[in-house]
Design goal:
- The protein has 8 helices and 11 strands.
- It has 228 residues and is an alpha/beta fold.
- It folds into 2 domains: 121 residues, Rossmann fold (3-Layer(aba) Sandwich); 96 residues, Arc Repressor Mutant, subunit A (Orthogonal Bundle).
- Strands 2-1-3-4-5 form a 5-stranded parallel beta sheet, with helices on both faces. A 4-stranded antiparallel beta sheet has the order 6-7-8-9, covered by helices on one side.
- Helix 1 links the parallel strand 1 and strand 2.
- Helix 4 packs parallel to helix 8, helix 6 packs across helix 7 and helix 6 packs across helix 8.
């Protein structure tokens, strides 16, 4: 699997490269957002680890440009630890977020988790299941989502959440349960992460996200997709 590492700190890039190569991954390096875009076009990585604050083009801007074309899993890095930075990154389309300094084992675990989801969503495994409620349709063979005939583009994490919910129409999943099933790891301070992804999904599948038809909150318990 090919991974792009993008950070303006050369030492961090080299350190991450050592960890990833020790696990057998092929790595490419970039030191600003513009270089990252070039590497994505040239080498087509399956995952990107990218810093937020960089010269020439920051990580958020680069991520938005990448998201216009493809749904490569993106893990953002930042020296900032405030929840607002994490929320902004997730709102803009990041699949995960790690605050520097980070534990190498945690980074590797998150990389493996994202790659597993990417492989599952983009692989050749035959799955003829089509899930439908009202005008919302998820085709798990083609990995597409449509609402009233209009295709909706989701990130890999958003797709995974929606697929889990629509496969279990009417069932309420707690925030921790959603996190553990989608991220494949124990939930820890997962409220913001899940809530941001839910909000982003609503923005894409609901006519009025403030009065959702499909993706409902059950206050104090969790979320569900309504059976229509």
């Amino acid at each position: 699997m090919k991974i792009l590492i993008c950070d303006d700190d050369y030492e961090i890039v080299e350190a991450i490269e050592i960890y990833l190569k020790s696990e057998g991954y092929t790595t490419y390096k970039a030191y600003n957002g513009l270089e990252a875009l070039e590497e994505v076009t040239k080498n087509k990585p399956q995952l990107i680890i990218m810093d937020i604050m960089m010269p020439k083009m920051d990580g958020i801007t680069a991520m938005l440009k990448i998201r216009h074309e493809q749904n490569i899993p993106i893990i953002l890095l930042s020296a900032k630890s405030e929840d607002t930075d994490k929320i902004i990154g997730l709102q803009m389309g990041a699949d995960d977020y790690i605050t520097k300094p980070f534990n190498p084992l945690e980074l590797l675990a998150r990389v493996k988790s994202q790659l597993r989801r990417y492989t599952e969503l983009g692989g050749t495994k035959v799955n003829k299941s089509i899930y439908k409620t009202g005008g919302l349709i998820v085709d798990d063979l083609t990995k597409t989502v449509s609402v009233d005939g209009e295709e909706v583009k989701l990130t890999p994490v958003q797709y995974k959440i929606l697929l889990l919910l629509i496969q279990n129409l009417g069932r309420v999943f707690s925030i921790d349960e959603l996190y553990e099933k989608v991220w494949n790891e124990m939930a820890y301070n997962s409220d913001n992460t899940v809530a941001v992804h839910i909000r982003n999904i609503r923005e894409k599948i609901e006519i009025n996200p403030k009065d959702p038809k499909y993706l409902k909150v059950v206050w104090g318990i969790g979320y569900k997709i309504e059976k229509i």
